[in-house]
Every structure is written in structure tokens, then in C-alpha cells.
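Weekly modeling sync, notes
Attendees: S.R. (lead), two postdocs, one rotation student

Agenda item 3: backlog of single-chain predictions. S.R. asked that every request posted to the team notebook include the full sequence so nobody has to chase files. The rotation student volunteered to paste the first one in as an example of the format we agreed on. Action items at the bottom.

Example entry:
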Amino acid sequence: MTFLYDLQWSRTCYQLLLAFLLFTMAKEAAKGQNLVSHYLPMTSTTVILTDDVSIPATSAGYSLWLPDIKTEGVILFFHSRKDTSSEFIVEYANSLGIAVMYVTTENPLEFLFSVESREKLSSLLNHALESKSLPRDKIMICGMSLAGTRALIMTRHGQSHETAYPFVPLAVAICDAPLDMIRFFRSTRRAERLNHHPAAANEGAWVSRHLFNNLKGTPKDQPENYAAYTVYSFDHREQLDIEYLDGIHVRAYTEPDVQWWINTRRKDYYDMNAVDMAGLINELMIRGHQKTRLITTVGKGYRPDGTKHPHSWNIVDEKELVDWFVNLVK
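Predicted structure, as returned to the notebook:
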């Protein structure tokens, strides 16, 4: 797959969401951590992605782990906790005075096409910041895969005229996220057509249709829609509006294991999110951005069950990431 876990696995995970949340809350309470949860009533039990693909909905809201000591900053993920990251990042960050927050809409595979979906996340974030008096100017948004895309979309949205809840993060750290939706559309269409691996073909089918439906056509038919939505595009790099990242510390993590992609998925560099990571960071550096870094890894990409996969959050050194953020805050 290019940016999501197998859809079948996602279905199983979300069916177990309630049990997982109850278990996690009990476990964290036993550790003495300060967990604050705020979730809205569900308006639907199903999210329709395409005409023939739907997934279980989740409750829109947030879970916030507060340190026992003074809160110096906030690490923010725009997804449910179980999607990526580990228990370690909550425990370690809390021990250093950093809160950790997970915010989500009803859609676990949220692309944030609409202003409404972006404002829902903004309002939930604002609710937590105000109700717990958290430092609004000391936030690091993190995200793996599509959550990394959300991190940049929300960073842009927080500085736009569209929001009633403006904010500017101190830092953004994204891991192997699809950013160039023009490239991504072409790649997913090709994966569907090749039909080499079921996970890649299935993902290619529904993702390309999802983009087509929400952006009103293909990149060739609707270049303006794709350019307006995408947070980085090689095709439009000269006209790219990335001033919203000025002054923000940006990190992009990726493991460009092209041999793995060719051998297992029949994908190459043109199909890898690594090119988006490198393209964005390079463009920022060309424009004089002094607070940006591309971090590449080798042989670290493994899923929690031990399966090798370079598209994995564990290529991120969570301790080093938290330490980096703490240094920025303090």
C-alpha cells in the first residue's frame, strides 16, 4: 500500500474501537496519568468512501493526556490514538511536561476535503486548549501517512480566513505522507490497473475514486481543484503557496526502500510518498526556510506484528522527536 493499512485490517480495528478505548482508559488511569476525553454524539454509524466501499464511523472528539507537572507544550495527532504511535510517546512526553492529544472526525480515513471537516477539528482543538489552558503557541502536529497530510492541511487551515479558531503550530513532523495529490491520483489508478497485489489494487481503486468524486474529476480535467487542495505538487511547485510554513519547524520522515516496493507491490519511485517528502523539504530550503529537515531511514520500517513495511510509523525515533520538541519549547 502507499499510505494506509489494509482496508480489511482497518475494518477489524474499528470494530474493536470501543473495547480498545475502555481498556486504554483503564490502563492509563491505573498509571496515574491524567486522561481527558471529549467526544460528540455519533450522527452516523457508517462512512461512505465510494459507492461500493464504506467503513465504520467513529465518534468525533479528542483524547488528551495531561502531565502531572506544568504543561509546557502539546503534541497533537489528527487521528485516534491507536492508528499510529505507541504508549511510549504519551508516557515519555508527559514525564517531560508535554501533553499528548488525539483529535478525530467521524471519518477514520478523513481527507479533509471540506471546510466543515477542517473546522470540526479546529473547534475540537480549541475546546481542549481553552478548557485546559494549554499553550496555544507551543504545539507540534505529528502524523503518519494520511494523518501527516492532515497535519499540513490543518496547519494551512489554522492560518486561513476560513477558520474561527486560528492557530499556528510551533512544529510539524510528518511521516511518509501523500502530499502531491496529482501524483497520488495517477499512482493509485496505476496500482488498480496493474492489480499485482490485492492491498495495493484495492486501495488504488477506492482512493482514486474518492479523489475523483471529491475533486470533481481527474487532475487533467480539474487541475485547479487539485492544485487548491494539495499541500505540495511537483506540477505546481513554482506557484505553490507554502508561506504558511514560514517560521514553523518542519520535519519529514521517510524510508525510501524502492526494492521492497518493486518486489512486493510493483511500485517504484514515482509511486512512493518519499518523493513528496523530499520535494516539500527541498522546496522549503530553496525558498530559504531554515527550520526544515528531511530524515531518511534504512531497515527500520516494520509493522507492530513484525512484518517488514517501510510505510510505518516506527521509522520515527519517538524519544528523539519528543526531545527535539522539548528543546524547541524550552
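Discussion: group reviewed the output briefly. The chain is about 40% helix and 15% strand.
Action items: rotation student to repeat for the remaining queue; S.R. to check formatting next week.
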